[in-house]
Specification:
Layout (H helix, E strand, L loop, with lengths): L1 H7 L1 H5 L35 E4 L2 E4 L16 H18 L3 H13 L10 E3 L2 E6 L8 E6 L5 E6 H5 L6 E7 L5 E7 L6 E7 L4 E16 L5 E7 L6 E8 L8 E5 L6 E6 L5 E8 L2 E8 L7 E4 L7 E6 L2 E6 L7 E6 L9 E4 L5 E8 L3 E8 L2 E8 L4 E3 L8 E4 L9 E7 L6 E6 L5 E6 L11 E9 L5 E9 L10 E4 L17 H4 L4 E5 L9 H5 L7 H16 L8 E6 L1 H12 L4 E7 L5 H6 L6 H8 L6 H10 L13 E6 L8 H13 L6 E6 L10 H18 L5
Helix pairs in contact: 4-14, 8-9
Amino acid sequence: MLKKALILSTILILSACKGPAVLDIKTEVDTSRLKNLEIAAPVAATIDFTAEYHDRTLSDPYHWLKDQSYPNTDDEPVLDYLKKENEYYYTFLEPHKDFVEKIFQEFKGRTDETETSVPYIRNGYEYRWYFNEGAEYRVRTRKNLENGEEQIYLDENKLAVGHEYFVLGDLAISPDNNVMAYSSDISGDERYEINFVDLRTGVYLPYTLTGVQGSVMFSADSSKVIYSELEENRWSVSDIKVHELGTDQSADKVIYHEADDGFFPGFSKTSSEEFVLIGSTQGEISETYYLPADFSGEPKLMVSRAAGFSHQVDHAHGDFYILANDTHKNFRLAKVSDENPAQENWETLIDGSDNSYLMNMKTFDDFIALQSRDSGYEKVYIRDYDGQSKDITFPEDVFAVRLGANREFDQSHLRLNYQSMITPSSVLDYNIASGDFETRKVQKIPSGYDKTLYETKRIMAPARDGTMIPISLVYKKGFEQDGSSPLHLYGYGAYASTVTPRFSTMRLSELDRGFVYAIAHVRGGAMMGYNWYLDGKLENRTNTFNDFVDAAEYLVDENYTAKGNISISGRSAGGELMGAAVIQAPDLWRSVNLGVPFVDVLNTMLDESLPLTPPEWKEWGNPITDPKAYDLLESYSPYDNIQARDYPPMFVSGGLNDPRVTYWEPAKWTARMRANKTDDNLMVMRINMGAGHFSNSGRYGRLKDYAEEKAFMFLAHGIKE
């Protein structure tokens, strides 16, 4: 045990190397707020719109901000309003450009401009990627292990030339090593195109797949690929198809059809590479089919959606291995022969447990890697096929770990990605036989980082119903718990997605300016197990919002900060959380950052023409058919609960091409908030007119966005340098 800790401690020592002195700004807190600009803020027109549901009248004067020709957004009044909001935003930004640039340079100075990945071995080649200095995107190379020849097989920078936005979706190399397929998105609308390249010549093959989701996979014989086709003018998938290389897309065969638009279909390959799995999910329910890796035959049903539970599947040595929450909400591990994998034949290997939430597994030739969260703390352990298991020991109590790039079925190590709120991201190879670690990479911070200057811990805050809410904290040593420090509180709380205590170089700009940074692990995520998720969805949704507000009030009560000195932020469903928190307790917050916020909950769940709405009914409820769901959504939907009162300064962002949280959600929130708030605190909205849910693409483009958002928060606290 001691040997393991000493070896792994190298990541702690390496991250503590001295660099330039960190900022130590002692700024007396300015209690004034960010105020409106001298020029008038945009005012959106109001147009009467009403609709009737369950003898209830919905009134929405900003309904017109949804372009009725969506997904084509070409309505001139809509575009004119968005442009005016952007102009107002950039008017705010203009006198603070030097401050934003300073923050951006801090971010950039902590970025390894020539970062390279840890190589991995795959099918006789060694693969890695690297950045060239100043480049926005990766260059990908591979080396032939037989002759040592190395080739650049994909330069993302070249693909991005001429495009305001570029994202690589997926990349696959054929099993015979001769052909590459990659998907890309150049607008942010998440409609991808798949191209094919002959890796022997570097020549593009004369066929392309369009209107697809990002994933792509080759058949075992390298002659075909499987992909998901998007419906025209929608982002839902009905058909998973097989394309034979060299043929026209119109001839592609449908291998799976999803008739229920409330389910999300997808595909993957087992670690053994013997089977393709086709799955379809909706909330807590999943269904799985399997077929041979050469795509022959018809998919066979393994688990039906009618069984009504969630699961994941892998395969090794003639057996399927299943994580399933059919007998316990925190999942059990089972196995079954691949010749007759019906559920009644499953053999339980690990029972479900109240205290241990089984989250992930991966099979290898000699072992299974399992990941769990035990009472809110991460755990990874190894289990052999005889049933013997051993835990992997890590040097910190509060950390984040996940399975890394483990690309070969037969390997003697397990690659892990490890970090904490004070330990930079590190790649570790755990030797299965010896139990030793090899540190393969520690995140490089060129401007310098000394982890001994910072401290992190986990505390528990009582919610109003008595539930104890975990909060992860990090701050600079020397912090005095006297209520004088500004605090940044982050939250998400949906879809069982857990915000783990990860490292962030951008966060250092806050800590070095005296901030405490906190993550409230509210219900709706899965920090404390799967029931933690269930306790924050559907009729329990308001627990998420209450947990966040109660966590903030506890931090005030414990003198980590003071009321009105807390800035909060969240994105997407976390943006919904921000909206609900600012409606419930506006006096608590110094500033609010609502990133691509899902704030128009009721209207979105009433609009079944939106491709993501039917699958979301299992998460939020269906107000079209259920009056109780309508009333619940209306009671907490942030947009529908804006009142005439004072609110703190707000930064709102969105993307015109966003298919997940459509642009009109932040736009309608901003318009209605402007018309109702009674204060003169600053409210700005930044709509990226050429991107989607994930804002700018490229590593520096996103850093610039984040620098602007951080500057807004700092200015709200009276910090100007």
